[in-house]
Amino acid sequence: MLVLCGCGSFGLELSEVGTGRLVIQPAGQADFGELLPDHQSAARRFALTTEDEVGGSSVDELWIEGDTGAFAITPTPEVPRVLDAGDHMGIAVRFRPTESRAFAGELVAATFGGARVRVPLVGVGCENDDGDRGCDP
What we know:
The protein is mainly β and about 140 residues long. The chain has strands spanning about 1-5, 20-25, 30-35, 40-50, 55-60, 60-65, 70-75, 80-85, 90-95, 100-110, 115-125. It is built from no helices and eleven strands. The strands form three sheets. It has a five-stranded mixed β-sheet with strand order 1-6-10-11-3, with no helix packed on it. It has a four-stranded antiparallel β-sheet with strand order 2-4-9-7, with no helix packed on it. The chain has a two-stranded antiparallel sheet with strand order 5-8.
């Protein structure tokens, strides 16, 4: 597992730590499609927000679980961070397959309280036996 994080609540007072629920949009599985291994990549953008319209939420850690060699958060947002109501944090995830096969992972965000929100990530490293720089049918 690759962890991209800050240290606990360093620099934040307990009164600053939000208690709202985090959500990642778009929700549901993120499909990066079929790409040529080691030649093509694709990126998807996500928005991490708080569901509570009154209080904020805290983001302690962000990471990718699963095929961490193919999926990466880039660039890495600074955490820990408090998201006020209506605020959001942009997260970009890149998929670059390293071989011809299906890849799966999850984008994970954790709060200071330990709650986690996840988005499934999938993509395929396709075959290219004819050398035409495109995926074979």
